[in-house]
Amino acid sequence: MRGKRFRLLTGVTATLALALTACGGGGGQDQLGGGSDAPEVKVEENVQFEPGTTMERLQQADKIRIGTKFDQPLFGLKVGDTPQGFDVEIAKIISAKMGIAPEKIEWVEAPSKTREEIIRSDRVDMVVATYTINDERKERVSFAGPYYQAGQDLMVKSDNNEITGPESLRETGAKVCSVTGSTPAEEIKKYVDPANLVLFDVYSKCGDALRTGQVQAVTTDNVILMGLVNDSDGEFKLVDNAFTEEPYGIGIKKGDVKFCEFINQSLQQASEDGSYAKAWEATAGKVANETPKLPQPQPCS
């Protein structure tokens, strides 16, 4: 897979060769995840918020609970005690705008199938976890953002030339793996028979299933697959044929409009002051040579 270019919907192009060069040839998780070389986050001082808002409550408590993925290189990967990746850096930026330092964040694992549940049961204050905004989810939680737009794709073994896109799955009889509760798991049902869809709770198990031949393809957003490909030591490749648009949002309690508006304002400030770009370049930017622009926010409701 060295030298193959990844085409993302945001216009981001990535190469494994670039990734290996940036990481000294090792592809270490700490470097790819945004660990020791993560950008410094400016923590606001003496911030004040309207009484009764979520921002005031969190600022006075001087702590926040944030759900993210623990198994996704480049976006949310737990290395040691702390997750690393672009989602993690975005969460740190928003927290810092409330005067909350990174070390005051309680990180909660947020697999795809539990994200609405942990928001609604008040186990987290927000979720930043490659969380696609869609109408079904908006019936249960509210979203700020989006802060990034990805697209669904397929990952296969490097010597697989039969699977060229979703339309080729049924004709090849391929078994496809995705994650329970995810948007990609629902979307891929258009292209495969139910008996050929294998679901796990995390994408790392899908990678294992592909490696052992239990499935012939893994599907989720291209940037997630990009991280899995990078960690496969050349065993996997991206089909590079994105077939959806996936706007990543920040999940919060349903109807918390003021918190949503604050998060959107924080993202816009991060885009303007360069901290959004630095967050990308220290994480997913390790394997992508173009920094995305912050998407236009959706209305808060």
Automatic annotation (TrEMBL):
**What positions does the domain Solute-binding protein family 3/N-terminal occupy?**
63-287
**Where is the secretion signal located?**
1-24
Q: Matching CDD domains, A to Z?
A: PBP2_GluB
Source organism superkingdom? Bacteria
What Pfam families does the record tag this protein with?
SBP_bac_3 (PF00497)
Entry-linked InterPro entries: Bact_solute-bind_prot3, Solute-binding_3/MltF_N
Q: Which UniProt keywords apply?
A: Signal, Transport
Q: Which SMART domains match?
A: PBPb
PANTHER family, per database record: ABC TRANSPORTER GLUTAMINE-BINDING PROTEIN GLNH, AMINO ACID ABC TRANSPORTER PERMEASE
As for family, the record states:
Belongs to the bacterial solute-binding protein 3 family.
Supply the name of the protein: Glutamate ABC transporter substrate-binding protein
Which species does the entry assign this protein to? Answer: Saccharopolyspora halophila
What lineage is this protein's organism placed in? Bacteria, Bacillati, Actinomycetota, Actinomycetes, Pseudonocardiales
